[in-house]
C-alpha cells in the first residue's frame, strides 16, 4: 500500500509525525508531495499533487493536511475521480470509507490534535468500502463530473 501525503506550511511537523506513524504502524510506503518549508505555501499545489498521484495510480490513497483541512481538501476534490473527506473525528472517517469509498482524507493541523489525528487515520485506513446500495451514489458522483466536463 502506498499513501501520498501533502501539506502546506502550517502542517510541516504534523505531516512528518503522521507519515512516521503510518510507516511504523502499518509498514506502508508514505510518499511526500507536500512542502517541507515553513515559508508560506499555497495549499492547492500539494492538494492537487496528491490527488493527481491517487488518480494516476502512483499511490493508492492520499492524506492532505493544512490549517483546517478545508482548503487542501477542496483542492483535492477539484480533481476528477477524487472523493476527499475532511474530518475532525474518526466516525466520519470510517463511514466515509465504508459508504463513500473516499480515496483521500484531509484534516487540520490547527483543529485536530495529533493523537486524535492518528485515531482518524486508523479509522480511515481500516474502513472497507461496502459497495452494494452505496455504489449507485458513487456512480452518481461520477456522473456529475462527466456532466461538468461537457459544459
Ligand atoms: C493558511 O493560513 C491556511 O489558510 C491554510 O492552512 C488552510 O487552513 C486553508 O484551508
Automatic annotation (TrEMBL):
InterPro entries: RpiB, RpiB_LacA_LacB, RpiB_LacA_LacB_sf, SPI_LacAB/RpiB. Keywords: Isomerase. D-ribulose 5-phosphate binds at residues 8-9, 67-71, 100, 110, 133, 137. This is Ribose 5-phosphate isomerase B. Belongs to the LacAB/RpiB family. One of its GO terms (molecular function) is intramolecular oxidoreductase activity, interconverting aldoses and ketoses. It comes from the Bacteria. GO terms for biological process: carbohydrate metabolic process. The active site is at residues 66, 99.
Amino acid at each position: 500500500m502506498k499513501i501520498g501525503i501533502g501539506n502546506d506550511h502550517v502542517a510541516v511537523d504534523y505531516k512528518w509525525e503522521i507519515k512516521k506513524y503510518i510507516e511504523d504502524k502499518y509498514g506502508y510506503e508514505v510518499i511526500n508531495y507536500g512542502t517541507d518549508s515553513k515559508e508560506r505555501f499555497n495549499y492547492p499545489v500539494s492538494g492537487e499533487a496528491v490527488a493527481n498521484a491517487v488518480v494516476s495510480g502512483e499511490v493508492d490513497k492520499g492524506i492532505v493536511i493544512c490549517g483546517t483541512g478545508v482548503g487542501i481538501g477542496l483542492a483535492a476534490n477539484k480533481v476528477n475521480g477524487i472523493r476527499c473527506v475532511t474530518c475532525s473525528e474518526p466516525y466520519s472517517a470510517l463511514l466515509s470509507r465504508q459508504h463513500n469509498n473516499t480515496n483521500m482524507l484531509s484534516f487540520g493541523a490547527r483543529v485536530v490534535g495529533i493523537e486524535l489525528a492518528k485515531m482518524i487515520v486508523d479509522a480511515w485506513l481500516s474502513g472497507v468500502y461496502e459497495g452494494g446500495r452505496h455504489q449507485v451514489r458513487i456512480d452518481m458522483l461520477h456522473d456529475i463530473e462527466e456532466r461538468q466536463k461537457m459544459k
